[in-house]
Amino acid sequence: MKIAALFLLLAGWLLVLAAVVLLRTPAPQAAFVLAGLGVEALGVGLLFRSHAAPHGRHE
Amino acid sequence: MNLSPGAVLSESGAVFVTVSILLIPLAMAGLALINSGLGRARNATHMVMASLCVVAVAAGIYFVCGFSFEGVIGGPAHTVSIGGKPWNWLGAQLLFFRGLDLNGSPASLAAWMQLFCVGLAALIPLGAAAERWRLGAICTSTAVLAGITYPLFAHWAWAGGWLAQLGVNYGLGHGFVDAGGSGVIQTVGGLAALSMAWIVGPRRGKYTQEGMPSAIPGHHGVFVIFGCWLAWIGWLGLNSAGAVLFSGLAPARTVLVGVNTTLGAGSAALMTALVTRMRFGRPDASLTANGWVAGLAAGSGGCAFVAPAAAVLTGLIAGLVVPFVIENLELRLAIDDPGGAISVHAVGGIWGLVATGIFGRFPAVIVNNADSLARTPPPGDSGQWVAQIVGVASLLGVVLPLTYGFNWVLNRWSPQRVSAEGERQGLDLHELGAGAYPEFLTHGDEFLQH
After folding, report:
1. CA distances to B67, B151, B194, B245, B309 from B90, in Å
2. Residue of B85, B334, B386 with shortest CB distance to A52
3. Would an 8 Å CB–CB cutoff place B334 in contact with chain A?
4. Cβ A56–B397 below 8 Å, yes or no?
5. Which residues of chain B fall below pLDDT 50?
6. Do B392 and A34 touch (CB under 8 A)?
């Protein structure tokens, strides 16, 4: 799950880069940049979830 | 070789920047005191000692290779061409500061300032992994941050890298703007803090078998509040020097920087005090201190480019958000962050970058990359917020995976967490052989729920 989360972070960033390079019209460019950030948010969420410690792990 | 970065300074300007840079170590001392005060007495000396080691290692590694990777505005760099546009992605200076004349030029002042800034960024993870992070592992992790992750992003944002060129190359406002380091220092450090909190896990006794967190109070509230005072003074220097060196602000215009820095921190602290007063019946000192530093972290990015009222609004939102993030990280996500570093620096820093895009009003040209000097007509503010979001996305999409990955590997090679016995004994005795307060009776873990 951690690997998938890290890939999501990277994929989101690549989506943002692609939007900057390929799109010239402001509205679609901004939409895709925000979509890339959304993919990254999923990745961060997955990382949080994968690190949810079993209760009392460090008791 | 005489480097020629974008900013041009008069002699009095160089003196002003020198004085501003000299204030930055006070921010480091402030963070060390805050982190020490928010921890238990048994780890107090270890925290301050670790802070000193972090600053030393960060400066050394940055001198060896960090500056080479970061570079300066207009200096040599590795560039690739994508879609016919140059993408400047890594500095190509010589190692060991070779070729850099330490003569008070903007390039030398930038290099000197960065020696402090990288230490400040590397101090941030200490707050999140406090009380269970080995001293040797702290130094190794700091070396990675100072040698790789920090210079990489600092080059992109502060040394004419591709983020700074987004305006010139793609018409996104003035490119990514981060005058005082909301992204370069605060968010880079905050994401390292998040990585370390994940890797070392919560402190022993922090969570019960049922998953309920126990309150582990800090041992010295005065340290924490006094640390905020020192951090404020250090931040005034940091933001002023950064605005002049990396954004080309005239030294006389740093009055706005000082006003905004103070208003941002003050409004954030007041908002946090108000929120905790409403929720808990009285203002919480440690959370209010966190709010103060969050206001500083959030205000750094746009300190030179927002009106004072916008700085107040930025601070108010930072102060409102931080206590809720701290609470949710601890209660819902089982993140044990004794110093609140993730919420204060990562969340505060990201909010500061976004706020710069929303509230920023920029002069005709910002000296954040060499190309902008020759560019006519000057870029407008259109698309600035998109440039800021691209910067945030780069922090989450590159800096976080790199930081997490490197520290994960280090942890596999040699565990970063101290032994259970060492944690119970306290890191002062376990790693340093002496406690901070030997003549005082210190409490054990009797206040924890088991």
Report:
1. 11, 9, 25, 19, 37
2. B334
3. yes
4. no
5. 1-6
6. no
Please classify residue A25 by burial: count the beta carbons closer than 10 Å to its beta carbon, then call 0-12 exposed, 13-18 middle and 19+ buried: exposed
Residue-wise pLDDT tens digits, B145-191: 999 999 999 999 999 999 999 998 999 999 999 999 999 999 999 99
pLDDT value at position B309? 98
CB contact under 8 A, B172 and A6: no
For residue A15, count other CB atoms closer than 10 A to its CB: 21
Task: Tell me the shortest Cα–Cα distance from B85 to chain A, in angstroms.
Answer: 9
Distance CA B379, CA B362 (A): 10
User: What pLDDT shows up at residue A56?
Assistant: 46
Residue B187 CA to residue B347 CA, distance in Å, equals 7
Calpha distance B222→B387 (Å, rounded): 40
> Which H or E element spans position B91?
strand B85-91
ipTM score for this prediction: 0.94
Cis amide prior to B151 (ω within 30 degrees): no
Amino acid at A22: L
pLDDT value of residue B440:
76
Mutating which of A20, A21, A23, A44 best tests the B interface, going by the most B Cβ atoms within 10 A? A20
Q: Which of A9, A48, A57 sits opposite B396 (nearest CB)?
A: A9
Nearest chain A Cα distance for residue B112, angstroms: 31
Q: For B401, which of A9, A53, A58 is closest by C-beta distance? A: A9
d(CA B367, CA B164) in angstroms, rounded, equals: 9
What pLDDT does residue B206 have? 93
What pTM value is reported for the model?
Answer: 0.94
CB atoms within 10 A of CB B159: 31
Q: Which parts of chain A sit beneath pLDDT 70?
A: 53-59
Shortest alpha-carbon distance between residue A9 and chain B (Å): 5
Question: Which pLDDT score is estimated for B442?
Answer: 60
**Contacting residues of A for B405, CB less than 8 Å apart:** 6
Residue A59: what pLDDT? 43
- Does A55 contact B211 at a Cβ distance shorter than 8 Å? yes
